[in-house]
Amino acid sequence: MATKLPIVLTNGELEQIQYGDVLAGVIPATSLTTIYLSPTGSDTNGDGTSGNPYFSINKAMEVLAPYAIPPNGSVTIELAAGTYNYTEKQNINHPDGDKITIKGSSANYAFSHIVSITGSAGNWSVKIQITPNLAGDEAVGQYCYLYSLTSPVAELDLTNDNAGLTFRPPEANNTYNNYTFVANDAGAESVTYNSPNKTFTLNYNAGVSTANSMKTVFDDTLDANPGWPQWTCVVEGTGAGLWVTGDDGKNAASGPDPLRYLLTGVHEITAVDSANNTITLCVKQRSSYLPGLMTSGSGYRLKTILTCNTDAVLEILSDRKITLQDLCLSAVGMYSGLVVQPRAELTCADVVAFVNGDTGLQAQVESLIIGSIGISGCNVSFVGQFARLKVSRGIFTGSSGGSLLTGCSGYITEARFVGNQNQGERAEQSVISQSSAVFIGNVNDGLQAYLGSSINMSLSEIYYQGGNGVRASSNSLVNIQSSTFKNNGTDTNPAGPYPAISSSHGVIVTGY
To answer: What is the pTM of this model?
Structure first.
């Protein structure tokens, strides 16, 4: 006797069908259905095919509404590259949304170094050198999700006296083919290279023009930015690079630039130079300066952007589920990029980014957030209200605060929290485990646990200036293991300085 399968239709009726049958109102279990959208598509004249796509997610949901999707079926709503300027919020309201993926277009990319940094706090213009070459479809208005960043590391042979600072790059660097010096210290510096000893010396000669002396020595790139309170000297050669920074050369330090994390985020492409394989990003960090020019990195280029000027861009209705992939949601004004209603579930595959607006992502009561998220340029990047979190990789950068978690539970790994005026992360009544995370508080705390929160931290980095690295208050508990605290050297709160750890009616257990 043939096996019968029970199928519940969207009207609530129960039907028994034989495997392989196609029943009206049921998407065949063995098919992979794709509905196509395009910025130039039409909800009126389109039919959802690749040659005649729809325009809106709302239209795709309307087409799917009469159909149930069997357990082993799936539907992809595929959005072509481009910007979708919606005039109304796009709603997710299908009972089988856990089998629906809304997918945009993206590409991997990598850059070898920063060509130049101009601008000021909140509106930096950062030109990066793409390697090996541009793909050819880069366009102004796309976004780059920048996560993985490195700065050259070197063991230095330092000699520091009143005459200047002498350092020797690693022995692997037998040739030096690119030199960059950034300075604005009082007086002036010159640099001499001793070829037999393979050493560089920074000399301090008051009254000598910095620009002239640097050009004479290097005959290469010189970028003097009056907004930078420190100098950064980078030497790039075969095999490895070198990063050194200090205050007038008196307290030099070697190793990765700790401020490279300020470049993490989702940044709009504002210029494309095909001839030189560079793109320029608008970085909205409010820090007073950004990392050195030798910072390199990789990430994703998001080519599908959704925006709405009248409401939130996208909303998942209560008790519904959806998977988003390779999309960038750009909010406007006081609106949010995405609202996840109570008990709804959002799964982010690959990368989903939220930019601009008041809140990038708003997760309401008992909602569930899963996957990889990038949020930048919003007032507050992420607001969780008694939500459940399973975030495997995230960037939470707000022009005010990084993230605000109220009554949330779950775990966050490999995340970057950057707050520019408020905390990198503020947790209230929350129970969160966090590992391999980075917390940066500019003019405030890196992490604040408040109102009875319980936070477990491990393998994390906490940068602070103008606030505490970690602050526990109002009966909160923070357990810190195998983590480091560093003064991030950026914007200073005049009421400071502050210690790395502070507890006011809270308990902090440390093992770092």
So the answer is: 0.78
